Q: What sequence folds into this?
């Protein structure tokens, strides 16, 4: 039985769910927003009945360990480089049921798009429409991806790699969800903005675990 599928069966029996931050090469700050994922895990546990371990792990994109996490989050501001092994490992992880969320923390876009093509050379990123399920449950975002942190006055966009109709890789651009998940004093975002970011994050977690 696939290692990831086995883990998901264990989760369904009520054990703590594990999520992780992706560590990658290239010099980009993969470790940016250190409070983001723990805060999102706490919010989800309090609001959508998850049981996520708030001590979030770090996992290298080319390691076998990645298969033990049904949800992996990746962020940063700069360069990203996937080796051939990294790309194969990520493709195997995603096609076997794993979910990779990449959130551009500003400055990542020009690099990450090329690296995503290494993972799925024949499966291009597709913009996700605002009426997709990921924007509907458990919180409604009728206009699609919310804007959290302004950089270049561009609209926020969500892109996906779809496998058998399911979003398996999600790339969020010009929103900076991770900034909204961080401790409030880090960016001094208004509570309403942080709440939007956390609710959208909860939708992503909910979609990843249920679809």
A:
């Amino acid at each position: 039985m696939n290692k990831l599928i086995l883990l998901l069966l264990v989760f369904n029996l009520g054990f703590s769910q594990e999520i992780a931050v992706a560590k990658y090469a290239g010099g980009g700050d993969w470790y940016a927003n250190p409070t983001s994922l723990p805060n999102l895990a706490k919010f989800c546990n309090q609001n959508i009945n998850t049981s996520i371990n708030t001590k979030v792990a770090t996992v290298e994109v080319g390691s076998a360990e990645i298969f033990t996490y049904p949800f992996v989050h990746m962020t940063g501001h700069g360069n990203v480089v996937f080796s051939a092994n990294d790309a194969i490992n990520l493709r195997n992880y995603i096609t076997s049921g794993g979910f990779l969320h990449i959130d551009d923390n500003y400055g990542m876009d020009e690099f990450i798009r090329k690296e995503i093509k290494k993972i799925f050379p024949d499966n291009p990123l597709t913009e996700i429409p605002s009426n997709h399920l990921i924007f509907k449950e458990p919180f409604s975002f009728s206009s699609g991806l919310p804007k959290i942190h302004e950089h270049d006055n561009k609209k926020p966009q969500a892109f996906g790699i779809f496998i058998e109709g399911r979003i398996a890789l999600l790339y969020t651009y010009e929103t900076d969800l991770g900034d909204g998940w961080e401790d409030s004093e880090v960016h001094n975002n208004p509570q309403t903005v942080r709440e939007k970011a956390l609710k959208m994050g909860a939708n992503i977690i909910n979609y990843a675990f249920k679809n």
Q: What stands out?
A: The CA atoms of residues 68 and 97 lie 11 Å apart. The chain has seven helices and seven strands. The domain at 3-210 is CATH 3.40.50.12140 (Rossmann fold). Confidence is low (pLDDT under 50) at residues 1-15.
